[in-house]
């Protein structure tokens, strides 16, 4: 098949269509081991676009593949086809009946988004997959998804009432309950197949609770008056029809819950205990193994939570949840769980029993923290910084609970036989444990191990009459094994279903039936010959095998960055919903470029800059991505390579060199400030330099002029506060002086201002940035050796010495030294805890709303703001749940990104600021954040130092 006539396709739809190598590359992978570059990518705006795309594909003889969140782990959502991405636009609730407990949705709606809409009516859609923050309901139906609580609520099939879908020939059909006969040729053919194969289905289909493999032809057998044809589409992986709307059954929310964390000294004993625990009637029994505990403790986001609920060093945990309407009944069952553990031989501190027991969690917030770790289980497992990674291919095996311990033990022996080990997690309540052997699929040995382990594992599953596809579907990785599981006759029936629905193989071919070999290395994300060329880098990436490429490869495509609420990642995706503009999309593009798959010079190309254009370097991915994919640093690598090859444009040079010319510019500030006062100048600056005329640039001020350079506390007076908001530095001096500290300003020996080098990094001028870092680091290091404390006000500048500096000038500056440079509120908190902060403080406002700077959030430095402000009498403190403000240095001032900057602010920050009471303080440490709040929300935001200065002044006024 040749290339797609993309111009013709674009002319026939209202949405977007692309056949560019970069766009296609971003859709070449899902969360599996596979990579298949599609022919084109379509993002439909309306259903008619889907119809037009399918008609175009039929005429061109090109397959079509529907895609939602792209988080499939078996290769369901990669193909040599036109990809239709439903997630951006086709995500509405179409009909909702709370009283009847029903909702009809478009296939691109994300599960968490639906549940947020239902919450007010105390309803939810209970197929609670761990990827709920990005999994679309259409994708969940295609996959027959399950979830942690499937022991009570069943699978997607059990909660799907009807589906309206389009067949390969363009016909739109309603799939729901039908009588016998149905009076419809297609449905009657399917019912006839079900009747014909009823005996074979009964004999060959596994009886375990978790079976999602093959087509659900068991829904067609004559075991009742009606059959639901929607259940045939559920789990069909988009191979039979394309869903237009889904009607789903809702359930009352679980308002009363308790959680017991059962600790076991061995993995085998945890598995053996599951069959006894389920008799207590839990809604979930989830496994967390020692690998997840260990890796979780290595990830900053999870370490404090893991330490909170894990006692000692258990080999395995079982999270057991009870959710009965009566809270007293839940408490009774939780107590019974402790008694059961003792009966099974586990109790801490009992010399007659093994070490173990139950950590009880009745507080909902505590429970939520624990479940947050479990739902990120896959990502935590994948965070290994090794050449080998846990690989998904036998992870979906499900057996009866009575065989679970023996099965897992035998499977572990298979792993050891082939020179590896596995990581375990998932759903012990239903006998399904996700296990991923650690393999290096860049090597031929890894591919051979993959095949050998699969062959032996699926033989064991068949022996126990289990299912090899228990939750994550068939895709490429398991489809070829159906004959062994179901027998030839059932597989021929599967093929008959596919051919009756899609005779020309137009819809996602090669899945469920007629699949390629699962170990075909040409389909791997790391095919034969996969390698990256050596590259000079700005940062030290030696902590990752493979350096920069290895760090990029840490992205496992699970898509946590596509979440639309909670945390701060990824603000550009939240604003635009483009795969290009999410951390995963950027990482995939970088990987393909670094390994030569996008052609020569792709790394420094204009297409790469378009990929990075809307990354605001917020660092949210560094903290919130469980893989810690640090896209901010990776963007610097691209900028540095381009700067070296092409030089730096004028606007970017003006921004980069700001710290150097600021002392001179401040002398003619009356002239520079005329840009936003004199008509026509702003428009001219946009035309000449690209600074948006819609934005007011920061106002140059008389510089901060504290001359004292000695003291026990030295302020790091950054460029922005020194020349644009000196009142913040003056406030810091006042507060710290009143508190009894000898305050000076850190400066170079000649008295020159210090700089972190960040403005140079933003332009890719790495050598300049390193020079500034070294100049400042030398001063800071000498001060630290002398026992002085260094305090910074601007988060991005201060925290550069914790994040970038150690991996750029590590021969002179360590992470420990970086942690010794404190933000203003960190210093206040440290001193207050030690009883040394003695500034007089008085009430100034009833309430303060805090917007944390992205770098504070990413590096764990946001929490002290709340604690510090809590010292001010009568001030109620509340955090604004916000992502990036959207200003991001110069990003919000650039003509080409100004609109996206506003969109980011409008996600949550601007509405919260506008809605704040007039007498409330809005607190933001970041210069960019304060300017964005003023521009977009028309509210003044102040630095923490100014809040404390106001409180000190109020106290002194009262004292006078």
Describe the fold and architecture.
With 960 residues, the protein is of the alpha/beta class. The chain is 40% helix and 13% strand. It has a seven-stranded antiparallel beta sheet. Strands 5-6-12-8-9 form a five-stranded antiparallel beta sheet. The chain is globular.
* Percent of sequence in beta strands: 5-15%
Overall geometry: globular
Helix content: 25-40%
Unreliable sequence segments: none
Radius of gyration: 30 Å
Number of strands: 28
The helix tally amounts to 42
Task: Report how far the terminal alpha carbons are from each other.
Answer: 86 Å
Main pleated sheet = 7 strands, antiparallel
Mean pLDDT across all amino acids: 93
Strand order of the largest sheet: 17-14-16-15-19-20-18
Backbone structural class: alpha/beta
